[in-house]
Amino acid sequence: MNTHQSLTVAAAWLLATGAFAAESAFQFVGKASDSGSLVYEEHHVVAGTCSGGTWQPDTHSVDYRKPDTDRTFATKELDYQHSPLRPEMAFQQLDFNESLIVKQADDNTLAIRWQTPSGKTEAFNVSFNDSVVVDAGFDNFVRRNWDSVVAERSVDFRFLGPTRGEHYGFVMEPASTDRTEAAHIVRIRPSGMIARFLVDPIILGYSDSGALTDYIGLSNIRESEDGNYTVHIRYEVTRQPDCELTP
């Protein structure tokens, strides 16, 4: 076998096994309703790679828009360079002059900077370990525990509360609701007794392919300076990545 034939065979093997990283894209739109009224839309663009036949996110951009308009009132940028579960994040909500930045300062410290709607700036350094999930990393956390989702098993983890400068114990567990017909439904709730009285559970719906279909719970978007929307977000995939979302 000559060199050209060897390269051809090697390339064919890589394509057949998916043992290479190929750039791909994942796009979806979420429509958020509060008490039945559409209050905003989320437009998601995720750049990533197909590695070993499974989707791996690299960066993630979100534009938040008022219904039926192109006006962006908030943005979020996520970078998964350190971990698919703990993206670095830059969030801005222009209507309230609010911003929130989460960076990985070193191998075990997250640096948080929050400009509040009142104009005050809060800064925190938070230690973390591999059990900690940040922001949209929860979506990747669900997919990386897909066997447990399908088998309806509970999984413990910790979730960052960036505006409190701390992470808290949570559990992902099977759930049921008549508010969605998703193929798989899970609930994310605090596992600590005190936190249960302070934080309401979040309900998530997923398709059989591992795409998020529903989010029911407290939003990251402010309704006023005093509180955020509680919403039901229904998601629709507009561009599927070129490989499987779940392992």
Written description of the protein model:
The structure is a single chain. By secondary structure, the chain is mainly beta. It has one domain. The protein contains four helices and 15 strands. It has helices at residues 3-17, 137-144, 146-151, 193-198; strands spanning 21-34, 37-51, 54-65, 72-79, 88-93, 98-106, 109-115, 121-127, 132-133, 155-161, 166-174, 184-190, 202-206, 212-224, 227-239. The chain has a 15-stranded mixed sheet with strand order 8-7-6-5-4-3-2-1-15-14-13-12-11-10-9. A hairpin with a 6-residue loop joins strand 3 (54-65) and strand 4. The longest helix is centred in the first third of the chain and has 15 residues, at 3-17. It is globular. 29% of the residues are buried.
* Ends distance: 35 Å
Number of domains: 1
Strands side by side in the biggest sheet: 8-7-6-5-4-3-2-1-15-14-13-12-11-10-9
Arithmetic mean pLDDT: 90
Features:
247 residues, mainly beta, 15-stranded mixed beta sheet, 4 helices, 54% strand, globular, disordered N terminus
Summarize the helices and strands and which ones pair or pack.
Elements: H1 3-17, E1 21-34, E2 37-51, E3 54-65, E4 72-79, E5 88-93, E6 98-106, E7 109-115, E8 121-127, E9 132-133, H2 137-144, H3 146-151, E10 155-161, E11 166-174, E12 184-190, H4 193-198, E13 202-206, E14 212-224, E15 227-239
Parallel strand pairs: 9-10
Antiparallel strand pairs: 1-2, 1-15, 2-3, 3-4, 4-5, 5-6, 6-7, 7-8, 10-11, 11-12, 12-13, 13-14, 14-15
